[in-house]
Amino acid sequence: MPKMKAVAKTKPAPGAEIIDIDIPTPGPDEVLVKVLATSICGTDLHIFEWNEWAQNRIKRMPQVMGHELCGEIVELGNNAENLKKGDIISAETHIACGHCFLCHTGNAHICINGRIFGVDVNGVFAEYAVVPASNAWVLDKRIPKDHASVMEPLGNAVHTVLAGEISGNNVLITGCGPIGLMSIAVSRICGATRIFATEINDFRINLAKKVGADSVLNPKKDRVMNSILKDTDGLGVDVVLEMSGNPTAIREAFSVLRPGGRYSILGIPNKPMEIDLGKDIVFKYVTVQGINGRLMFSTWHKTTRFLSSGRLDLEPIISHRFPLIEFEKGMELMSSGNCGKILLYP
């Protein structure tokens, strides 16, 4: 059986290893993909560092990590339709069952039985990966392969930004990690009037300015609430897009969100936290939304159009590139925060 190299979690402890494993064989409803580029997500860092979430979620080892990719289809299962060898694809990483209540009602992105590449099934930090044919997203040829490899996290940003009205609105984005940076760029091309962002890492503060933020505030140095209220004539922003997962940032953003505003949350705190429901939500008539993944597949259509139009440039957000075998360098950078999006090449 031909072998390939892959990055895998092999033991219940911090770290991961390059291992040699069999090249997988696609099932009837799957395709085999030669991975051209893949990118590191915060989820991968959690698994690498073996935090509490990873310890509770990862059930098998070795577990090939990674879920963001661009690749070429090299083999098709017998039932794979509307695909062909040579197609360049990205992939939706939530594997939906297709038969539960949520799948049947247009909410496959929160499928009750959903699985995720690199978490529940083998992932894409490898030379080859198996992908369900229904998850393969054939790419517009105008989209560069590097940009295609980050379409999945970009879809998170697109979903969050477009979960409500954005054009003509003042927006606060809390946290300028890769998806926060993408949210700034998407908000800009979608017509946000003024974009505020908060971030404590100098590297990411500079990236936020490059991709379109009008004002980037450091909570450790700046009076965030005073600055935003001053620049919005005391009203506050119309929209908050929460990307940090930081409990303090989450709470304080309510104080600069205008009454009747929208608060869309993608960031996930490490532990349960408290907010004042009466003061911050009920009496302010605020709409709070939890965002999970990408709408399947309307978000993918919008993301494709943004990229193929040439109006959305991801290049400033892609800060580092490494061979797959140097994945640990990428993990170290992710842990430091001194990076944007990091790409790996098998």
UniProtKB/TrEMBL annotation:
Enzyme class: oxidoreductase
Database matches in SUPFAM superfamilies: GroES-like, NAD(P)-binding Rossmann-fold domains
EC number, as in UniProt: 1.1.1.103
GO biological process terms held by the UniProt record: L-threonine catabolic process
Database matches in PROSITE patterns: ADH_ZINC
CDD domains per record: TDH
Keywords: Cytoplasm, Metal-binding, NAD, Oxidoreductase, Zinc
InterPro entries for the chain: ADH-like_C, ADH-like_N, ADH_Zn_CS, ER, GroES-like_sf, L-Threonine_3-DHase, NAD(P)-bd_dom_sf, Zn_alcohol_dh
GO function terms (MF aspect): L-threonine 3-dehydrogenase activity; zinc ion binding
Domain named Enoyl reductase (ER): residues: 15-344
Pfam family, any one: ADH_N
Cofactor: Zn(2+)
Family the UniProt entry places it in: Belongs to the zinc-containing alcohol dehydrogenase family.
Name the UniProt record assigns to this protein: L-threonine 3-dehydrogenase
Organism of origin: candidate division WOR_3 bacterium SM1_77
